[in-house]
Known about the structure:
By secondary structure, this protein is mostly helical. It contains 17 helices and no strands. The protein is globular and about 70 Å long.
Amino acid sequence: MTLNYIWVGFFIVAFLVAIFKTLTGNPEIFSLIVNSIFERAELGFKLSIGLTGIMALWLGIMRIGEKGGAINILSKLFTPLFGKLFPEISTNSKAHGAMIMNISANMLGLDNAATPLGLKAMKELQQENTDKNIASNAQILFLVLNTSGLTLIPTSIIALRATAMAENNITGNPADVFLPILIATYCSTIAGLIFVSILQKINLFQKTILTYLGSATIAIGILIWYLFNHKNQIEIISSVASGSIMFSFIIGFILLGLRKKINIYEEFIEGAKEGFNVSIRIIPYLIAMLCAIGAFTTSGAMEFIINGMGSFFGLFLENTQFVEALPTAIMKPLSGSGARGMMVESWGENASQINSFVGKLTSTLQGSTETTFYVLAVYFGSVGIRNTRYAVVAGLFADFIGIISAIAIAYVFWG
């Protein structure tokens, strides 16, 4: 329902702004809006078709990893941590495995596998919930960790960037947002965890928790410190790191497949088929949002908003480059397809701005937060929870920290 209001709102606001502009001396605005809608429809189809090959490749690789046991390995790795974070869940509960596998799938970009695992986790958590109408502490923490979206491989974003760059013969590394997204999602996840832990009185200074979070935080901190003090090497480091890490994942998944003695080629084909189907399903959503955003932007409504935010932040800050990317950040908790459309819009005509500061920042913002309202509605709705307590506030707080982190990191990398 939220998405319906957003989509209709774009067109209505565009229409009202166009009337105002027509009355104030711009009679061509309606023609420009109509042309923009048709152009965005064509762009959405082209992007979706180009996306098919990239998604087929990555979901084929992910299928190999999934069948090779990558999720199970991550599950075993995080079991001790989850035992401390969810003290009210019994140690032999099936919820532990489902939660860990869901978050592991999200980290690997396996959205199709993550959703059913997440719903299963909510079902198991609901069985241990003493009040079936009110969200339990465990359910809230699980969903906040889910919506904060720690991501190791931002598959769809890299795929969209690669497609847009290939379509328009733009040189560059489509995966150069890999490290910024990883850092931003880590900050978002830690923020959500701390927020919930304070309310639930979870002691984060336990030895097990400190070992996991401390080591990860130190590693991220050292990375940021090094990049900040070697800004002239950031482009090289980012390119080498993103390429080597992602190719290492591919090789690692293949080795896991060999270890499990699966038919690697056949599993890749099955995953690639799924990637093709995912890309086809995206087409109507991407076209719908791009057309609505195209009308909204061409009417001048987006310019009013950006100028207004720019004037506000200009009162406190000298550099307000990031303001042009804020529509993507604001849209993401409400609608994934809407934020995706905003991101593509920020790349400009023929993706000419895809490698600009704003183009890279919107890509990072798209990957640093989750569609919080959608996730909460689906997961809580699946088990009949009516009172979600502070889950929305905690999720939005994690999103907010993710946005701030993404902006700060963008200035470190590309500012």
